[in-house]
Amino acid sequence: MMLPDKITILDEAPTLALFCKVIDNYGDIGICWRLARQLQQEHGIAVTLWVDDLPSFQRICPALALDIDLQQLLGVTVRHWRDQAAVFSTAEVADIVIEFFGCDIPPGYIGAMAQCTPRPVWLNLEGLSAEEWVEGCHRLPSPHPRLPLTKHFFFPGFTDKTGGLLHEASLEQQRSQFQSDPAAAAAFMAQLGVTAAELVALKVSLFCYPQAPVAPLLQAWQGGAAAITCLVPEGVASAAIAAFLGADAIAGAARTCGALTVRVLPFVSQQDYDRLLWACDVNFVRGEDSFVRAQWAGKPFVWHIYAQDENLHHVKLRAFLQRHVLDIDSAARFSLLWNEAIVGDAAAPIDWDAAWVQFAFDIPNMVAGSANWQRKMLENGDLASNLVKFSCSLRQ
């Protein structure tokens, strides 16, 4: 499916303010940074990205300066969101204001929004979910209780009744070019310290939250019949990785034991993380940003979902698996085990060896299914374009 051309709102591209309060270290800012760049590059929108946690931002954008409150990066204005007490004038208010995942933007900014003529489009960009209720809430209005402002909810999702997924217009071309050039992929991995011998094995990228059952999975891989190279970013699953290495889990550290080689990688930019996903055979991802990028990588993946109270994340996980894995039972079961949605007991502990063998056996089926999934998702349009179209309808 052809992606839409650049969209122009009215006679002049608008300004846009995107507020991001980082909760999930890299997931929240990862989504907002990709969205901000795409809105600026593909739609010509002047974007200001407000971020409260610059150190987390810098991990995925090394060019970011931590000691500057206002800076330009790749055409996007980045501002340090320090507190809620700032005072704003109407001239500082953008034409479109987006708060990510219900973060409370400064009251002074909201007050200035109410004084603008015309008033800005105000959107709450929600978190990604495959649950059916999302379709009924997508684009719903929410009038402010006191001020003459209306906020609309905008939900990413997996159907044409939602806002779709983040997907840049050039993404498929970039991925196809990279994956069809083994020399380029090998050169990229070599830059990360991956050796030629490690490239021959099944390559697995590992990005997860600290509570993931990494240790028993490493043990299963170590005793398996097939060689596996596990590539993990520095700072991820540090305790389990250090225990396997017998040393600190710092970038460059590596050890081979049995069938398993574990190598710790430096934290990389978003562009290089995409390449890592493209180059690996299986990707373990977490949160939302890497979760979406794994879907576009066209490789089997296992999602470690952000934990919520009362295990509500298990409901969200099952809703996605019901849409995505179809009849590949091994993929669904492994994902549920990884997220502790299926647990063993003292009498019958989880057999990670068997779970992985079953998952690995179905890797070819998952690869074939991922191509169909991508085509289906592209039919929904991309999140940035859908967001711009909706904002256009509200401004006219």
Descriptive overview:
By secondary structure, the protein is of the alpha/beta class. The chain contains 16 helices and 14 strands. It has helices at 27-43, 54-60, 107-114, 133-137, 171-179, 182-191, 196-200, 214-222, 238-245, 270-279, 289-297, 312-324, 329-338, 352-361, 363-378, 383-395, and strands at 15-20, 46-51, 70-73, 76-80, 96-100, 121-125, 141-143, 150-154, 202-206, 228-233, 254-257, 260-265, 282-286, 301-304. Strands 3-4-2-1-5-6-8-7 form an 8-stranded mixed β-sheet, with helices on one face. The chain has a 6-stranded mixed β-sheet with strand order 11-12-10-9-13-14, with helices on both faces. Strand 9, helix 8 (214-222) and strand 10 (228-233) form a beta-alpha-beta unit. Helix 1 (27-43) packs across helix 16 (383-395) and helix 13 (329-338) runs antiparallel to helix 14 (352-361). It is globular and about 70 Å long. The two termini are 28 Å apart. Mean pLDDT is 93; it is low at 1-11.
